[in-house]
């Protein structure tokens, strides 16, 4: 058998220096674990500390990458995250934020400029996958902009990699006690909208189906998981489109947490799909007029038009039976 030796260069910045990472987490054991994984990937560890260091605002230098763990966040913490968002966006650093499903809406609302990777209830394997994405961005020669097809293909590939990571993590007890998304789908519904649905669409656009038809279709799709492996039918983009269309017809707003649950995939994966759909012009991020630190997700005019024409094309009876 022929054996080959492979060598890997450590990730470096444009000057050829090792990429530095700042790590902030209140749990010391987690900071040590993250630092161990980062060193193994060839990164240089920069500033490490608890979240209080961010709140105090005394940090002079951030790393090329900032990795933050905040499973819970209060009002003071949200203000600190908003400052961090602006600072990271100005510095050009890359940001990874791990949080919990309960804190997701607050955390998501704080980051509207730095485009972070947000990991929800993540395992160690999923965090390593996120670090791998940083490697892809920092590797020399990676200058070509990805097309929309490239991004969608990368999302599908990421799902497969994360599935492997979850299988690896399931061999340990680290994921014990976490509730699945399927257990929580009915806990989150859209909030009453203060404004009417978007206007200005083409007058020739056909009407959308009744919201009850859409909710029935969603329930039918979810029922498949009772009899078959749910991963056989994973289609997060379509499930989110259906949920947002129903909310549009009901004049309701949808939080990012609710949309992640509606997607039927792990929330970290759902967040990347949401970002892709925003980048593609199908979803809009809508800031809360009363609280700028909160944000909702809605269909763009283009998506509303597309969904209306889709249902007109297939016919309502087909939509009910699908």
UniProtKB/TrEMBL annotation:
Skewed-composition ranges (Basic and acidic residues): 183-192
Region (Disordered): 183-206
Chain ranges passing through the membrane: none
Cleavable signal peptide: none
InterPro entries, sorted: CheY-like_superfamily (IPR011006), WH-like_DNA-bd_sf (IPR036388), WH_DNA-bd_sf (IPR036390)
Domain of life: Bacteria
Protein name: HTH marR-type domain-containing protein
Record organism: Altererythrobacter epoxidivorans
